[in-house]
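> example.struct
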C-alpha cells in the first residue's frame, strides 16, 4: 500500500498512540468521490543508529524483526481470528525508521472495553424495580477472547494451532501480552462462519518485544527479562524480586505468555486494567494470586480453574498453550441447553437477552451498510 497514489489517496485521520520508539496512526483511503474505501494502521518505529545496526532488530533478508514476526504469524492465522492482520512494511534507512501497515482495530482495545464496563458499574445505575444494574463482561465474550488468545499462544510457540510446526519454526515469546495490545475487530458482515455469533473478534497485536526462545544460550533469562508491562508479566520475566534467589530462577519460555493470557482474563473478570484507578495486583517472589469466590459464582468453576492453571507461579507447572486451547475448546464445544432449551454448544449460542458487551461503535461500518 502506498500513501498519496492517484486517483485514490491515503489520508491521515488520527494518532492512536505513541511509545518509546514511535507512534501508530489511523489512515483512510478515499476514491475519486472522497468515499472511504479502506482503512489501515501505520506504525512508525524509529531506532538510534546503534540499534539500527544491531542484528537483534532484523529478521531474514534484512526485514525488520517486528515485521518479520508479525507477517509470519499473520500468515499462519488462517481463520484470521487471533492475530492482527499484517499488510506490508517499508524501510527508510536514511531515517533509521520503518513502517508497518496493518489491520485497524475498529473496536479499540480490550483495555478500552474493560474501562467502559467498569465505568458503567461505577455509575450505580438501577432498573425500574430499584435493582442495581451490573455491567460485568459476559462469560460468552470472555470465553471467546480466551480461545483467541490461546490460539495465538499456540501459533507463537509452534507455528500452528494443531501442534504441527512448520519447518525450522523457532519458538517465540511475545513478552507484552496485555489488554492494551489486544485489539477488538467488529465482526464482518455477513459473518464468515457461525462461531461466537454477534460477538466482535479479539486479536493479538504489537510484536515489537517478541523474542525467540533461547533455552541453550547464556542470554536467557538475563537479556530477555525486565521488558514488557510489569502488571501482566510472569514472575520469571522480572528480576525485581525481594528475595535474591528468585532473580534469575527460570528461563523465559512461552509459558510466560500463558501467564499473561491468564492475567488478562482475570482482569476481564474483575474489570481491572492498567489505568491508575484499576491496576491489578502484581505479587513478587513467585507468590500465588488471590481468586475471590465471587468469580466462580459469576463465571463458573471451569473458567476459574483454567485461569488458575495459566497463572501458576512456577512456569514448569503452568498449563501449556496446547492443553489450554484443547480444554477451552472442549468446554465451548460441549453441548448445553440454550435459552430455548435446545442443546447448543456455547460457541454457537446466540446472545441471551441479558448479555451486554460495551462495544465501541464503528461509524465507518454503520455508514457503509
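> example.seq
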Amino acid at each position: 500500500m502506498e500513501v498519496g497514489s492517484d486517483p485514490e489517496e491515503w489520508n491521515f485521520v488520527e494518532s492512536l498512540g505513541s511509545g518509546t520508539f514511535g507512534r501508530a496512526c489511523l489512515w483512510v483511503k478515499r476514491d475519486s468521490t472522497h468515499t472511504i474505501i479502506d482503512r489501515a494502521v501505520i506504525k512508525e518505529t524509529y531506532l538510534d543508529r546503534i540499534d539500527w545496526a544491531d542484528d537483534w532488530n532484523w529478521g531474514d533478508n534484512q526485514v525488520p524483526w517486528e515485521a518479520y514476526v508479525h507477517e509470519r504469524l499473520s500468515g499462519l492465522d488462517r481463520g484470521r481470528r487471533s492475530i492482527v492482520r499484517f499488510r506490508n512494511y517499508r524501510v527508510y534507512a536514511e531515517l533509521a525508521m520503518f513502517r508497518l501497515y496493518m489491520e485497524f482495530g475498529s473496536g479499540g482495545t480490550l483495555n478500552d472495553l474493560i474501562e467502559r464496563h467498569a465505568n458503567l458499574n461505577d455509575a450505580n445505575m438501577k432498573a425500574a424495580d430499584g435493582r442495581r444494574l451490573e455491567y460485568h463482561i459476559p462469560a460468552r465474550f470472555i470465553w471467546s477472547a480466551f480461545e483467541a488468545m490461546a490460539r495465538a499462544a499456540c501459533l507463537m510457540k509452534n507455528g500452528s494451532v494443531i501442534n504441527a510446526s512448520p519447518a525450522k519454526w523457532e519458538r517465540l515469546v511475545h513478552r507484552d501480552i496485555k489488554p492494551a495490545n489486544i485489539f477488538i475487530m467488529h465482526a464482518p458482515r455477513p459473518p464468515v462462519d457461525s462461531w461466537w455469533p454477534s460477538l466482535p473478534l479479539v486479536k493479538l497485536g504489537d510484536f515489537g518485544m517478541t523474542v525467540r526462545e533461547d533455552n541453550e544460550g547464556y542470554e536467557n533469562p538475563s537479556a530477555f527479562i525486565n521488558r514488557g508491562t510489569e502488571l501482566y508479566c510472569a514472575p520469571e520475566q522480572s528480576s525485581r524480586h525481594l528475595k535474591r534467589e528468585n532473580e534469575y530462577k527460570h528461563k523465559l519460555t512461552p509459558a510466560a505468555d500463558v501467564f499473561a493470557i491468564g492475567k488478562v482474563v482475570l482482569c476481564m473478570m474483575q474489570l481491572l486494567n492498567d489505568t491508575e484507578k484499576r491496576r491489578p495486583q502484581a505479587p513478587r517472589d513467585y507468590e500465588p494470586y488471590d481468586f475471590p469466590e465471587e468469580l466462580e459464582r459469576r463465571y463458573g468453576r471451569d473458567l476459574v480453574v483454567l485461569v488458575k492453571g495459566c497463572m501458576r507461579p512456577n512456569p514448569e507447572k503452568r498449563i501449556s498453550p496446547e492443553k489450554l486451547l484443547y480444554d477451552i475448546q472442549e468446554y465451548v464445544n460441549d453441548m448445553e441447553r440454550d435459552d430455548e432449551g435446545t442443546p447448543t454448544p456455547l460457541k454457537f449460542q446466540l446472545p441471551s437477552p441479558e448479555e451486554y458487551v460495551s462495544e465501541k461503535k464503528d461509524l465507518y461500518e454503520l455508514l457503509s451498510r
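> remarks
The two ends are 25 Å apart (CA to CA).
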